[in-house]
Amino acid sequence: MPTPREPLVYDVTVEAMFSRALKGRLSPRLKTRVKEAGIDLDAKLQPSYPREVWLRTMRLVVADLYPGVPEERAWFELGERMVDSFGETRMGPAIVGVLKLLGPRRALGRMSQTFQHANNYMQSELEELGQGRFRLWVNEVGISPHFIAGTVSATLRTSGATAPQVEIAEFDGHQCTYAISF
Q1: Exposure pattern of 55-68 as b/e (b: 16+ CB <10 Å)?
Q2: Total-model pTM
Q3: Residue 170 CB neighbours (<10 A)
Q4: What is the pLDDT of residues 154-175, one digit of tens each?
Q5: For a Cys staple, 83 with which of 52, 57, 154, 160, CB 3.0–4.6 Å?
Q6: Residues in Cβ contact with 68 at an 8 Å cutoff, skipping those fewer than 6 apart
Q7: Spatial distance between the Cα atoms of 49 and 125, rounded to a whole number of angstroms
């Protein structure tokens, strides 16, 4: 019987978040706490990190950088910020270029492939409901479904949608279904 794969987050995701999206925003205290949680931002990034390390560090970031902001809004904004800065990573320009060529509908249809560039555990299924309306199911959203909603919203904007709406339709603590329109 094959052993289950350890859930991993890839270095390109860590780079997009910490070296790009949060560049200049991390206090020395927060950098130390992130290092203690398992990601040394002053060393060369590892090829991947256990999902639990990623989740621990992201909780620290939200608590430190978004005090007083409603948690759902903080996670959504952090997700948007990460995707918006993804173009500055090694692989980012190629991925952003592809998204622009695909357009919002086809970019949304490729979310599973997009997630596979970030980690080895997220999968999604898309259902088209009508003109510009979709349902996106994601098997594992990590800490907050709002973080993934923010990443999906920013991905849609990057691919050409002018006013995407990404709302949580169902969430069971792991998997989430989003109602999307643009």
Answers
A1: bbbbebbbeebeee
A2: 0.92
A3: 12
A4: 999 999 999 999 999 999 999 9
A5: 154
A6: none
A7: 25
Across 59-78, average pLDDT: 97
Find out whether 127 and 110 touch, Cβ atoms under 8 Å. Answer: no
- Which amino acid does the sequence have at 49? Y
Residue 145, pLDDT score: 98
Q: Which two tokens stand for residue 10?
A: 């890839």
